Amino acid sequence: MVSKDKLIIFDTTLRDGEQSPGASMTLEEKVTIALALERLKVDVIEAGFPISSPGDFEAVKAVAQSIKESTVCALARCVEADIQRAAEALLPSNNKRIHIFIATSPIHMEKKLRMQPQEVLERAVRSIKMARKYTDNIEFSPEDAGRSENDFLCKIIEAVIEAGATTINIPDTVGYNLPEQFGKRMKYLIENISNADKAIFSTHCHNDLGLAVANSLSGVLNGARQIECTINGLGERAGNASLEEIVMAIRTRQDIFPCDTRIQSNQLVACSKLVSAVTGFAVQPNKAIVGINAFAHESGIHQDGVLKNRETYEIMRAEDVGWNTNRMVLGKHSGRNAFKSRLESLGYPFRSEEDLNRLFENFKVLADKKHEIYDEDLIGLFKNSNKKEADKITIQNIHIKSRLGHPAQINVVLGVHGVEKEASSEGNGPIDAAFKAIEKIIHSGAHLQFFSLNAIHEGVEAQGTAKIRLEKQGKIAHGQGVDTDIVYASIKAYVNALNELF
Ligand code: KIV
Ligand code: ZN
User: Fold this and answer.
1) What pLDDT shows up at residue 149?
2) What is the pLDDT of residue 233?
3) CATH class for the domain made up of 393-501
């Protein structure tokens, strides 16, 4: 048997994924996701961009503290302060990587950086040498490589490898490349850079033309041995290459690929659900691998075929990606210990006994409303509990009257800086009425740019998760709310966004 190369899976859900508008995550949520990625056996977890904010710095540090097996990576520009901050955040990790990037395309160098190519090259080399003081595991990305000139890419990559970079990532930052073109570029670079054998080449493809997975796979067929990707394809604009699609394409087509990953594919669905619950970004039903319809056969001909022989219409087994596996489900009879250990395994750090008691009480209330409590519901519990301390606006009460054929009526009572205020309104359905009543109290004048409402998981008992984007004078605020009552979930999301806005 021909031995297969190892394909490194570099997950950037917590960094590039978090750059999706509205996908920001709390520190606890990032640690929870990082632990799930470790269970999935992701090789490298890019935890964030520590210089970008104190919150991101703390989150990278917390992930570096919690993760023992995967490598933890932090992003930095070719700037000394960025590199120092990344190194500081990664201090708790025994297995760390610093990821350094600078743009190399003519348009980025001229219009954004206002630098000559030679200056860009020198700065990249200086930065790699600086980062080497903290670790030998250095990744370099020529940003917008997808629109860069091959000659310049060869020059700069050769120089950074010489300076100590051990992974060379080729980002198609704006998702402009086509699969054949991206593969050709990968092959050209590997064949024409004299010291290419001293580094692992990697792909980082954005999905603007819906080609991120195809481009990444083409990169692998042409010599790349690391793929950067995200759970559910989360990421800037149209997103990144989706981890679950990449992993299953490679595993299913071992007749074509000369490599394989270490990924525990039966964790893919759980990971996808977790990321969806944390970010509030629903997974489209027909999404490959993790969409609810990915293995559902509707047509009679297909059903008949599958019953006779599964392989007539199925190229993968649903259980191999984590559908239909028995998940531990909590319910109203679950004790405090079972609850605590489930939360701990999700990486939720208890601040105190009171914190645990408060969450356990909320859990019992939820368990009275719905019989089975999944991990996604527990994430919803953190979400609802996280807010309480800092909120200026709180929900005190709501009273809804809704009759078919009549406008819905609602009365909302809010606490505003500790003072109770109430308003009533009619609307085109209870959610519309509720938002109008809230505006009567708050007078935010914000524009509702986006509203979505989805079930956290399947079944009529599922909790609803509402997402909202408000805009006021150019400032954007995102809100999320989770509840078994979808009107209440929507009100929570609206109030959550208002709290961020003011
Ligand atoms: O898309 C991109 O170019 C990036 C780099 C920082 C790797 O995310
Ligand atoms: Zn990117």
Assistant:
1) 98
2) 98
3) alpha beta
